[in-house]
Amino acid sequence: MMDTLRLLGAITALEPRAKQKENTDRAAVEVPVDAFYSLMGRLKSDPQLAFDMLYTHTAVDWSAKGEGPGEFELVYQLYSMTHGHYLLVSTRIPRDNPVAPTVSPIWKIAEWQEREVYDMFGVLYENHRDLRRLFLEDGWNGFPLRKDYKDEFMLERPE
Amino acid sequence: MGMITEKLPGYIEPVPGGSVLLTSMDKLINWSRSNSLWPLTFGTSCCAIEIMMASGAARHDLARFGAEVTRPSPRQADLLVVAGTIVKRMAPRLRTLYEQMGEPRYVMATGSCAISGGPFIYNSYSTIRGADEILPVDVYVPGCPPRPEAFFYGILTLQKMIKLGETIRKPGVRKKPVLAALPPGVTLDQIQKEMAALLEKDAVINLDEANRLREEWANIKMAGNEGA
């Protein structure tokens, strides 16, 4: 078990570009997308950290009206069954070209979680084995959790 | 039951006194139907906790109203309690369940989601805006989720409706009971004024009154001490 400060210190030693996120109750870091995959691999293989479980993966749509294309923040919640500590890792990708590396070679469960994020946000995971829709029908148009999503079924909130 | 309700009216009606007999039979049948509702367990979200678990458990006890025999099969149920959000994918299944239930069947929509879509009414790609878009609903129980008491009020309303309602001669035609009528001599204005006065009284603390009461209590206490 490592406390938050030691955990953050160990991660900064692994990847100097990892930034600590503020106002979080658990250890949380944000990394640039090009350093992301190698950091995730080392987070699992490092015996001091040993994050052997990816228990949630989701995305956040950071875009506002009239402020350019915006970004997707990919959020990964990690847990170490060996040591019992938690970590949040996030990375940002541009919204108009939403391509991210898949972490499914590291954690097998990521295949399903990434399919869900693809289903809802349209994030494209490179080298994913089977990137299909998970919950919605195969013929669905668009990605419903994007902020600019609209369809004919949806009722717009009156201003 | 099916044979009685389908064939018998035709034989009895022409007999002298037959229509009187039919009316009393209606009463008997409706009474037994209203007191032996078998609900189908259909909980899709948090309302199920209140409606199916809290209402059925010992503290509130749905059995008092004869509706505790929740069935997991639509073939054995005659009351469909829609307890929770209905999404697009669930809608056809819900409709199928409704159609598999035997006649006469009743539907209750409990909670905001089943009534109108609730918090998901706007900007939702998946939520059906109310169970009445796919089913004919008899009783609506508002709340998010409704308390068991509210659900029981819904059950009692449904029982009232069943007792008033269907006759052998016209199956499927249901009368809706009048529930919210003002007592004679009372107007809405009076009720509003009374409520406003009550709220005002609750919201304001009268310091003089409180001090007076405190002194009174102190005097009583002192008198008690002297007596001892």
Q: What structural class should be given to the helix and strand makeup of chain A? A: alpha/beta
Which blocks of ≥5 consecutive residues of chain B have pLDDT under 50? none
Distance between the termini of chain A: 51 Å
Rg of chain B, rounded, reads 25 Å
CATH fold title of the domain at 39-149 in chain B = Rossmann fold
What Rg of chain A do the Cα atoms give?
A: 17 Å
Total domains of chain A: 1
The CATH first-level class of the domain at 39-149 in chain B comes to Alpha Beta
Give the SSE string of chain B: HHEHEHEHEHHH
CATH architecture of the domain at 39-149 in chain B: 3-Layer(aba) Sandwich
What does this structure look like?
- The complex is a heterodimer of chains A (159) and B (228).
- Chain A starts with a helix and ends in a 33-residue tail after the last strand.
- Chain A has a single domain (4-126), classed as NADH:ubiquinone oxidoreductase Nqo5 subunit (Beta Polymerase, domain 2, 2-Layer Sandwich), CATH 3.30.460.
- In chain A, the strands form 2 sheets. Chain A has a 5-stranded mixed β-sheet with strand order 1-2-5-4-3.
- Chain A has 3 helices and 7 strands, in the order H-E-E-H-E-E-E-E-H-E.
- The radius of gyration of chain A is 17 Å and the shape is globular.
- Chain A has helices spanning 4-14, 33-45, 110-121, and strands spanning 19-20, 28-31, 53-62, 71-79, 86-94, 99-101, 124-126.
- Chain B is extended, with a radius of gyration of 25 Å.
- In chain B, helix 2 (18-34) packs antiparallel against helix 6 (148-164).
- The mean pLDDT of chain B is 84.
- A 4-stranded parallel β-sheet of chain B has the order 1-2-3-4.
- Among the domains of chain B are: 39-149, Rossmann fold; 188-227, no CATH class.
- Chain B has helices at 2-12, 18-34, 47-54, 90-100, 111-116, 148-164, 188-203, 207-227; strands at residues 39-40, 79-83, 106-110, 139-141.
- Chain B is built from 8 helices and 4 strands.
- Classes of the chains: A alpha/beta (159), B alpha/beta (228).
- The interface between A and B is small, with 8 and 8 residues.
